[in-house]
Design goal:
single chain, 155 residues, alpha+beta, YbaK protein, five-stranded mixed beta sheet, three-stranded antiparallel beta sheet
């Protein structure tokens, strides 16, 4: 989903947001640094497989996914990181690794780390490695309806 399509979706729901352009950065920590946002406030989207089904794990850029804790929270038998080849085609207009955390638009579950859900604002990649969108967490929660759980481990 390119930034334009995501912005249309947000506009159609009367969501107030800010776009932040930054120099090209790949890792979440590089994005946070480039955009001058603390790593704990920048959300990164990690693609996972829960019982073989793709899902999004959304957590602060400064943290990593604890697969065992996520598996338990999702009441799944298995949890694994998804390989790029397993999800790349689902997001044809996004740069790989820059998918916005709107799994609901792709028919997949979204899990958000507890500490990220406690923030007033959430910032995330807007489909590219050079643009972020920042909006109120309450708006994100209302649109996506993620399952909030404790699965983020110190990076």
């Amino acid at each position: 989903m390119p930034a334009a399509k995501l912005k249309e979706f947000l506009d159609s729901h009367q969501i107030k947001y800010v776009t932040i352009g930054h120099s090209r950065a790949i890792t979440a920590q590089e994005v946070a640094e480039s955009a001058h946002i603390p790593g704990k406030e920048l959300a990164k989207t990690v693609m996972v497989k829960l019982d073989g089904k793709l899902a999004m794990a959304v957590l602060p850029a400064s943290r990593k996914v604890d697969l065992e804790r996520l598996r338990e929270a999702a009441d799944a038998k298995t949890a694994a990181l998804a390989g790029e080849a397993e999800f790349k085609e689902m997001f044809p207009n996004c740069e790989c690794g820059a998918m916005p955390p709107f799994g609901n638009l792709y028919g997949m579950d979204v899990f958000v780390a507890t500490d990220l859900a406690e923030d007033q604002m959430i910032a995330f990649n807007a489909g590219s490695h050079s643009e972020l969108i920042k909006l109120a967490y309450t708006d994100f929660d209302r649109l996506v309806r993620p399952k909030v759980c404790a699965f983020a481990a110190k990076g």
